Amino acid sequence: MKVAVVILNWNGKELLKKFVPSVVKYSGNAEVIVADNASTDNSVEFIKNNFPDVTIIQNSANGGYAKGYNDSLKHVDADIFVLVNSDIEVTENWLNPVVDKFLLDKNTAIIQPKILDYKNKSKFEYAGAGGGFIDSFGYPYCRGRIFNTVEEDKGQYNNEQDIFWASGACFFIRKDVFNKLGGFDENYFAHMEEIDLCWRTINYGYKIKYVSSSVVYHVGGATLNSSNPKKTYLNFRNSLVTLVKNLPSNKILPVILSRLVLDGIAGAKFLFDLKPKHTFAIIKAHFSFYFMLKYALQQRKLMPNFSVDYYGVKSVVKEYYIGKKDVFTKL
Q1: How many domains does the chain have?
Q2: What's the mean pLDDT in 232-240?
Q3: How far apart are alpha carbons 156 and 327 in whole angstroms?
Q4: Which domain holds residue 90?
Q5: Are residues 89 and 202 in the same domain?
Q6: Is the pTM here over 0.85, yes or no?
Q7: pLDDT tens profile 268-278
């Protein structure tokens, strides 16, 4: 199988300097590509001068994660796309176990490796950890990370397992499936677009897997950290849009109404915590969601099926905050 490792970059020269060497060193015969979103910090020149074997694709504008990858992947000839954040350090033999799984199972469309914390390599990393799931209200969580509680890696998730979503931080996908589904939803700009694509993939009858024998380390928050209200806005808006696009028909109204109430509680908590900018980000997200509602309803008409058993637990919010279940194995 032809494999292409594609690193999306926007003004990340320092990250490229730090992390491209491991990708080049451990990616074997895979083509390594930097897809640049119209950077202004000499990122492209740095790659040209220091990594002449790395292919460069230059996008005309910064369209964010979704459009950035959609635009660049049109120019990539490979069977498997490996989408890698610019703040990912890979390890020896990180590609082979995943490629082997694709070869063995034709119905597996997306795979995520084990994602550990670059700053504390004994712990899982927030964005993806040991594979992602959602609850009945669409709140994401992972094996190894529930909300802000991150587990130490003790080998408890050293296996291969079907998961619901794979992290966009390090995301393996078959080219033919990516193209069949039309890639990422560019209206998202960033955040939740990988969960939306994964959910659509499942609705089309494909499987998503986690392969622990492939290990990478992720800095996390290097592009847009959790203290940024824009991240809050994108997460809340895109989550609601994702639910409308992908939920079974009988679930849309009760789940969306419940989420609007729960989001309101989250907004009140931000206000109580003296973070009013995040409260206003949630309000803005809701108004933006109403504006996008017609679009989301149109998109769901493209789905051939809807996953009835899409969630792992009824309410991860209840389990975590009331039941005090802060690790995946307790859920």
Answers
A1: 2
A2: 95
A3: 11
A4: 3-218
A5: yes
A6: yes
A7: 999 999 999 99
